[in-house]
């Protein structure tokens, strides 16, 4: 009985992780890709205008700390003059934001 319960829990956890990854990709495609690009390169017109980093670059990914990414998503990003470069994601929960950062990590080549 314990084996069945553990197996059921493991399958449920795997399903939740997969669903979370799918949700994070959908959120990225909807809210982030416009500037950061589908592959995270920042090579869109808006991305180039705002100086988006290339998150497919391993060096850029290595320099990015999760807490910095979470803060940027939660609070948005402004330039030195205070111009908004990225609006805060006010409609995302903390777990949504963590999943989004985890998805961003998958863009590294």
H and E string: HHHHHEEH
What portion of the residues fall into strands of 2 or more residues?
Answer: under 5%
Q: Helices and strands: which structural class? A: mainly alpha
CATH structural architecture: Orthogonal Bundle
**Gross geometry:** globular
Largest sheet: 2 strands, antiparallel
Total strand segments: 2
Question: Which spans have pLDDT < 50 for at least 5 consecutive residues?
Answer: 5-19
Q: Would you tell me which CATH topology applies?
A: Cytochrome Bc1 Complex, Chain D, domain 2
Query: What is the rounded Rg?
Result: 16 Å
Q: What is the domain tally?
A: 1
- Number of helical regions: 6
Brief sketch in words of this structure:
The protein is mostly helical. The chain has helices at 2-31, 33-36, 45-50, 58-63, 66-75, 94-105; strands spanning 77-78, 84-86. It contains six helices and two strands, in the order αααααββα.
């Amino acid at each position: 009985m314990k084996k069945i319960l553990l197996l059921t829990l493991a399958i449920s956890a795997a399903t939740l992780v997969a669903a979370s990854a799918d949700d994070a990709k959908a959120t990225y495609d909807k809210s982030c890709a416009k500037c950061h690009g589908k592959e995270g390169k920042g090579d869109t017109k808006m991305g180039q205008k705002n100086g988006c980093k290339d998150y497919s670059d391993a060096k850029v990914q290595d320099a990015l700390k999760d807490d910095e990414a979470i803060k940027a998503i939660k609070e948005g990003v402004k330039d030195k003059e205070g111009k908004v470069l990225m609006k805060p994601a006010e409609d995302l929960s903390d777990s949504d934001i963590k999943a989004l950062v985890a998805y961003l990590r998958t863009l590294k080549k």
